[in-house]
Amino acid sequence: MTAAFAEASPAALKAAIRDRVQAAGSSFYWAMRLLPPDRRDAMFAVYAYCREVDDIADSDASPAAKEAGLAVWRAEVAAIFGGSARTALGKVVAELVPTYHLRQTDFLAIIDGMEMDAVEDVRAPSLADLDLYCDRVASAVGRLSVRIFGDDRPAADKVAHHLGRALQLTNILRDVAEDGERGRLYLPKELLVAHGIEDFEPAAALRNPLLPLACNDLADIADRHFVEAERAMRQCSRRAMRPAAVMRAVYQELLRRLRRQGWRDLAAPVKVPNSLKLLLALRHGLM
Q: Rounded to the nearest 5 degrees, what angle is found at the Cα of 228, between the Cα atoms of 226 and 233?
């Protein structure tokens, strides 16, 4: 566990988590500002949990060491739901479980997703495996989130299903070059092969002039998930879905910018300016 999230008083831990989220300057932070303080702090705690397990998967440790680190968190999740959390962060999360009806399966699914990264470098997974990965690392987070937002109806889980996938696929399309440097290639095999790309070694795939065609196809899949997520939101509490609506708007804008860039210069960063994030937060957060 990182020093900031080591054993500490609940107040000190919550402050450390808030500082970490704010320092990241992410779209997540802009969206969560719409929540009342108690729900916002709950979301920040879930974010901290995700960062902890993600940092293990992305570390330079050996696969065995990564699995051991994730196993520690599996045990802590069991302790959280068994009423005997041991870590400071675990104790904060344990307080949230009965309040927001959070499910153990979703916390464990996140670890399962991180383990997919930890065991070996992902290279051109099948569409089915990529979908499973997105469900674990993103939609599972969404299922926790919608409950904290204030809606636990089946339609809210449907929002989590589609929006989680849309956000994760957009992240993959944004980070193609960065992931390639780590020896990872998340673009699905079927889309690569469809455009004549059969060398799945990341550096080779990224040099292939046909790569933008596969990226564009994956963007089409992300767009379909955005559409389904928006449709499901209409069946949910509008107030509860405000943070989700902001995340959808910001990431759809990011995907539009990626399409315009066309994956021709993978080293060129593509971002949504903070000023536009604020505008989208105001537009979709005050609906």
A: 95
The strand pairing partners of 123, in sequence order, are 185
Residue with tokens 């929002």: 159
Average pLDDT per run of 10 along the chain, which is 287 residues long?
56 76 68 88 92 91 94 98 94 96 98 93 96 98 97 97 98 96 96 97 96 98 98 96 94 97 92 85 68
Q: How far from 67 is each of 73, 74, 110, 186, CA to CA, in Å?
A: 10, 10, 14, 21
Lookup: tokens for 40: 């916002």
121-287 to CATH, choices 3.40.50.620, 2.30.30.60, 3.40.190.290, 1.10.600.10: 1.10.600.10
Give the CB-side neighbour count of residue 24, counting CA atoms within 13 A: 15
Cβ contact 215:176 at 8 Å: yes
